[in-house]
């Protein structure tokens, strides 16, 4: 079951959902819109290695926007830090952004219960696309879970800004 906008507001008011900064104007009928932060990271090596750290370089999105290029993976982030100890957060791109040919989350829309931080976005455009810091780029839905809850305490907890993959920290068998 996905929470309605009214229930998102109630859960935020009583602390079951945390959104910082929060604006009632970003609440939808069953989701909360999140905005694109001002920094992007791109990997600097042509071949990425799942068993090793992969270096990135940071790019600032200027006031006039930044044109994203097809075939490139950009790691962005939400301005809002979002999370819950009670609900499973799910992040997807907004349909208006999808209609411009931008993938916002390639394969990782599910957040863990207990995570709180800025969300890293995996941005990939179908064709050249100018994006702007502060634009509403995605939406987070909150789903009810059943059963015992073990809160997330992993490596991305408290994330601020774009975060590169840390799969190399032991998640890949030798």
From TrEMBL:
InterPro entries referenced in this protein's UniProt entry, alphabetically: dCTP_deaminase, dUTPase-like_sf, dUTPase_trimeric
Highest taxon in the source lineage: Bacteria
Short name of any one Pfam family annotated for the protein: DCD
Keywords for the protein's UniProt record, in alphabetical order: Hydrolase, Nucleotide metabolism
UniProt KW Hydrolase keyword: yes
UniProt-listed PANTHER family: DCTP DEAMINASE
Protein name: dCTP deaminase
Organism phylogeny: Bacteria, Bacillati, Actinomycetota, Actinomycetes, Streptosporangiales
């Amino acid at each position: 079951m996905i929470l309605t906008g009214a229930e998102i507001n109630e859960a935020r008011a009583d602390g079951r959902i945390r959104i910082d900064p929060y604006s009632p104007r970003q609440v939808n009928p069953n989701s909360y819109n999140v905005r694109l932060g001002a920094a992007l990271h791109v990997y600097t090596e042509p071949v990425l290695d799942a068993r090793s750290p992969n270096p990135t370089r940071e790019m600032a999105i200027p006031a006039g926007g930044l044109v994203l290029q097809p075939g490139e993976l950009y790691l962005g982030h939400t301005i809002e830090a979002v999370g819950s100890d009670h609900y499973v957060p799910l992040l997807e791109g907004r349909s208006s952004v999808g209609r411009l040919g931008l993938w916002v989350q390639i394969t990782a829309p599910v957040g863990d219960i207990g995570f709180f931080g800025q969300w890293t976005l995996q941005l990939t455009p179908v064709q050249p696309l100018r994006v702007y810091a502060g634009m509403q780029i995605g939406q987070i839905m909150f789903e009810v879970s059943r059963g015992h809850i073990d809160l997330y305490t992993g490596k991305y907890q408290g994330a601020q800004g774009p975060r590169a993959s840390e799969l190399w920290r032991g998640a890949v068998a030798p």
